[in-house]
UniProtKB/TrEMBL annotation, chain A:
<protein>
    <recommendedName>
        <fullName>Proteasome subunit beta</fullName>
    </recommendedName>
</protein>
<dbReference type="GO" id="GO:0019774">
    <property type="term" value="C:proteasome core complex, beta-subunit complex"/>
</dbReference>
<keyword id="KW-0963">Cytoplasm</keyword>
<dbReference type="InterPro" id="IPR023333">
    <property type="entry name" value="Proteasome_suB-type"/>
</dbReference>
<comment type="similarity">
    <text>Belongs to the peptidase T1B family.</text>
</comment>
<dbReference type="InterPro" id="IPR001353">
    <property type="entry name" value="Proteasome_sua/b"/>
</dbReference>
<keyword id="KW-0539">Nucleus</keyword>
Automatic annotation (TrEMBL), chain B:
<dbReference type="GO" id="GO:0005737">
    <property type="term" value="C:cytoplasm"/>
</dbReference>
<dbReference type="InterPro" id="IPR029055">
    <property type="entry name" value="Ntn_hydrolases_N"/>
</dbReference>
<protein>
    <submittedName>
        <fullName>Proteasome component C5</fullName>
    </submittedName>
</protein>
<keyword id="KW-0963">Cytoplasm</keyword>
<dbReference type="InterPro" id="IPR023333">
    <property type="entry name" value="Proteasome_suB-type"/>
</dbReference>
<dbReference type="GO" id="GO:0005634">
    <property type="term" value="C:nucleus"/>
</dbReference>
<dbReference type="GO" id="GO:0005839">
    <property type="term" value="C:proteasome core complex"/>
</dbReference>
UniProtKB/TrEMBL annotation, chain C:
<dbReference type="InterPro" id="IPR050115">
    <property type="entry name" value="Proteasome_alpha"/>
</dbReference>
<dbReference type="InterPro" id="IPR000426">
    <property type="entry name" value="Proteasome_asu_N"/>
</dbReference>
<dbReference type="InterPro" id="IPR023332">
    <property type="entry name" value="Proteasome_alpha-type"/>
</dbReference>
<feature type="domain" description="Proteasome alpha-type subunits">
    <location>
        <begin position="8"/>
        <end position="30"/>
    </location>
</feature>
<dbReference type="GO" id="GO:0005634">
    <property type="term" value="C:nucleus"/>
</dbReference>
<feature type="region of interest" description="Disordered">
    <location>
        <begin position="249"/>
        <end position="292"/>
    </location>
</feature>
<protein>
    <recommendedName>
        <fullName>Proteasome subunit alpha type</fullName>
    </recommendedName>
</protein>
């Protein structure tokens, strides 16, 4: 999948030939959600011994414009799960309200919360699949982090087509290209992930965020990071990337004022 | 239209100025959202005299990306518990994973309901017809998957039913589906149905005698499946990571997992 | 009820010559037979409590809850016909959800009471329906903090949302009682059901208007009052069900929750002890006549 949210959900050029964008020139009513408008970039997550680390930067882009710079793209659900959103921000807000009302309805019963991250993921995937089947997709790719029914770390992805998958590490958008290889190095399989310490996992995710900031033009150095364990959620929303070194940039042709 | 009129071509924000439409506007308007994707992977089913094997790799892809190395495409169908321990049927789906998942869930629910209402498991023949009906029910917005259904028939013989995305189906000796189907199927023609195999020295031209079509034993079939996937992994980038196998005999369903190359 | 038998009590929405709607008054009668419900508005939260009369020994203790969550920050309890109470709950939840989807912010207790008052009143206007056979007590905590709207993604303006006056206090506890006629008032302490007279007398002694009672003390008082009010109805067994909503710094963080088991048991123990001390005094029987 291409990392540009605008390219998601389109026919693949290598299979169907160059994409015919001519419909975009037509006047008349524009159908909502047929293309994303304000978008968030990558979300990263990595499982470890006791839970999951998840991170996303705080930028919402309007095309190539860095439009909103304090957008929180990690959302808590019921103090047990975190959902990280990539793609359209207004669709993210819709889903957030949906989860909010789900959370309130959950509280009607006196047994307290019964939905774990796995249940939440199933629910979200069904919402997304239903919407794509009605040709009115929610233009997001999202990661759900938390614990499953047995209290084991849970991490899974769902996207605008309703496609779902799960892995010891996951990354959406540009992160699928740049961060996922780095995270897979740290946790190639479930067994390795189940031996990672919290510190190792956080470090790997933070390093990946830095790489993304270097190379993803739609990223920003302010980000949110959450750790989900059975003790609860530790969500920090105002982190800043530190210890960047741009020395390498001088070696790159076309960078800054260098021309030849 | 006025809202984003800065760019007359795209009516909205773009990532790059060069990212303008690649084709001239025609009279027909294309719906802009494409609801399918291909998640790669391959499946394979072979039936024997008193068994059948269903197998599929566990890689899930998006273009050149690997989504995950473990996303099984072979499922037990119609068991009465969440572990599906008492299931008698298996289904494999390959193509668009979200549709595959939805199809599996739907068939599983129907076969479960049949079992509760009739007090016995559904026969593979009945399930095969039902699956065809489900697929054809979405003839004009198909489940973009190639499904294979497996089980033991009324006589205890291995049964493989293969489908196209809109419900056309056929009982076969064996079938490969998915990304590497074109690589595996000819191999199966030769090794399972003994195509182009003749008894050595039996003559020339029309006098050649074909090798007898004797059913293969389970151990041989299992080895064929492994070889088929090891070969497919070498030649197809969307196949790899792991092999999930289900062996159905009169004793039930045995699950096996084998690693495949992860490159 | 001297006008009984004159025919003006047979249909809803029909006034008697002296300006009464008898169907509503009969609904109030239904309420007066129900288990006592009370609500206390404390300085840092609200307590709701109900005397759940046990109608059969075959019922599971602790099951069949009578206090419902309307929204995160709000609960409701009612006396009278239980199914009517359930419908009240259902409607109140819908109102709270609709409010959220329209305004992207939680409904205040006052607004919910207003919506529900309007709803109940409609059931006094038509001959095709009957009034609600319940009096409901709605309690909640309107957040005193700068609360994000649903789905808000940023931090919002640094000066906070508009429409606020510096000197004025925002948010706080809310307690309202809604009667079958649709009338509703805000209360410091509210009581309804069979033991309401006793309960009201006890509530008045607490000087709630002064705003000094803490939530934890409120819980103890609520338990005690339910026990005292039950003393008039001793032959029937009952269960005490109690929920609370604290402020954002308090034990429930602005949410409507059941009072935790240990605190509930402690409060019940104190209530029983209080009753034993009072045992010598002869209680006056409350006769069930209309209040007017």
């Amino acid at each position: 999948m291409n990392h540009l949210p605008q390219a998601w959900g389109r026919p693949r050029d290598d299979v169907y030939g160059p994409y015919d964008g001519s419909y975009l020139q037509n006047d008349g009513p524009n159908q909502h959600s047929q293309s994303p408008i304000v978008t968030g970039t990558s979300v990263l997550a990595l499982k470890f011994k006791d839970g999951v680390v998840i991170a996303a930067d705080n930028l919402a882009s309007y095309g190539s414009l860095a439009r909103f710079t304090d957008v929180k793209r990690l959302r808590k659900f019921a103090e047990t799960s975190v959902v990280g959103f990539g793609g359209d921000v207004s669709d993210m807000q819709y889903l957030d309200r949906l989860l909010n009302s789900l959370d309130i309805e959950e509280a009607y019963g006196s047994t307290g919360h019964t939905l774990n991250a796995q249940n939440l993921h199933t629910y979200l995937a069904k919402v997304l699949y239903k919407r794509r089947s009605n040709f009115n997709p929610l233009w997001n790719q999202l990661l759900v982090a938390g614990l499953d029914g047995e209290g084991k770390p849970f991490l899974a992805s769902a996207d605008l087509l309703g496609t779902t998958f799960s892995s010891p590490s996951l990354a959406t958008g540009f992160g699928a290209h740049l961060a996922q290889p780095l995270l897979r190095k740290v946790a190639p399989d479930e067994e390795t992930a189940s031996k990672l310490s919290l510190e190792q996992a956080v470090e790997a995710v933070k390093a990946s965020m830095k790489v993304l900031f270097y190379r993803d033009a739609r990223s920003i150095d302010k980000y949110s990071i959450a750790v989900v364990t059975k003790e609860g959620i530790d969500l920090k929303q105002d982190e800043k990337l530190e210890n960047q070194s741009w020395a390498f940039a001088e070696q790159i042709r076309g960078y800054g004022t260098q021309v030849n | 239209m006025t809202m984003f009129s800065q760019n007359p071509l795209m009516n909205g924000p773009n990532y790059s100025f060069s990212q303008t439409p690649t084709m001239a506007s025609g009279a027909n308007k294309e719906h802009s959202f494409y609801p399918y994707t291909d998640n790669g992977g391959s499946t394979l089913a072979i039936s024997g005299n008193d068994f059948m094997i269903m197998a599929g790799d566990t890689r899930s892809t998006s273009g050149y990306n690997i989504n995950t190395r473990y996303s099984p495409k072979v499922f037990k169908i119609g068991g009465t518990t969440s572990s599906q321990d008492d299931a008698t049927l298996v289904l494999s789906v390959v193509g668009f994973a979200a549709d595959g998942h939805a199809l599996k869930e739907k068939l599983d629910a129907i076969v479960k309901m049949y079992r509760y209402q009739h007090g016995k498991p559904m026969s593979v023949k009945a399930c095969a017809q039902r699956l065809s009906t489900i697929l054809y029910g979405k003839r004009f917005f198909p489940y973009y998957v190639t499904a294979i259904l497996g089980g033991l028939d009324e006589d205890g013989k291995g049964a493989v039913y293969s489908y196209d995305p809109v419900g056309s189906y056929e009982r076969e000796q064996c079938r490969a589906a998915g990304a590497a189907a074109s690589l595996i199927m000819p191999f199966l023609d030769n090794q399972v149905n003994f195509k182009n195999q003749y008894i050595p020295g039996s003559g020339e031209g029309h006098a050649l005698v074909e090798r007898a079509k004797d059913p293969l034993p389970l151990v041989v079939v299992e080895a064929l499946v492994k070889d088929a996937f090891d070969s497919a992994v070498e030649r197809h980038i969307e196949v790899g990571d792991g092999l999930s196998m289900m062996l159905i005999t009169k004793n039930g369903i045995e699950e096996k997992f084998l690693p495949l190359k992860k490159d | 009820m001297t006008s009984i038998g004159t025919g003006y009590d047979l249909s809803n929405s029909v006034f008697s010559p002296d300006g009464r709607n008898f169907q509503v008054e009969y609904a109030v009668k239904a309420v007066e037979n129900g288990g006592t419900s009370i609500g206390i508005r404390c300085k840092d939260g609200v307590v709701l409590a109900v005397e759940k009369v046990i109608s059969s020994k075959l019922l599971k203790p602790g099951a069949n809850k009578r206090i419902a969550t309307i929204d995160r920050h709000m609960g409701a309890v009612s006396s009278g016909l239980v199914p009517d109470g359930r419908h009240f709950t259902s409607r109140a939840r819908d109102e709270a959800q609709n409010w959220r989807s329209t305004w992207k912010t939680p409904i205040t207790v006052k607004d919910l009471a207003s919506r529900m008052g309007g709803y109940l009143q409609m059931y006094t206007l038509y001959s095709s329906v009957r009034p609600f056979g319940i009096t409901a007590i709605v309690g909640g905590w309107d957040s005193e903090l700068e609360s994000p709207v649903d789905g808000q993604v940023g931090s919002g303006p640094s000066i906070g949302s508009g429409g606020k006056v510096d000197s004025k206090k925002h948010g706080g506890p809310g307690l309202y009682m809604i009667e079958p006629s649709g009338i509703y008032w805000g209360y410091y302490g509210a009581a309804t059901g069979k033991g309401r007279q006793t309960a009201k007398a006890e509530l008045e002694k607490l000087d709630l208007a002064a705003g000094n009672l803490s939530l934890f003390d409120g819980v103890k008082e609520a338990a005690r009052i339910i026990y005292v009010a039950h003393a008039d109805n001793k032959d029937k067994e009952f269960e005490l069900e109690m929920t609370w909503i604290s402020n954002m710094d308090g034990p429930t963080k602005g949410r409507h929750e059941e009072v935790p088991k240990d605190i509930l048991e402690e409060a019940e123990k104190l209530a029983k002890k209080h009753l034993e001390g009072e045992d010598d005094e002869e209680e006056t029987k409350d006769d069930d006549k209309m209040e007017e």
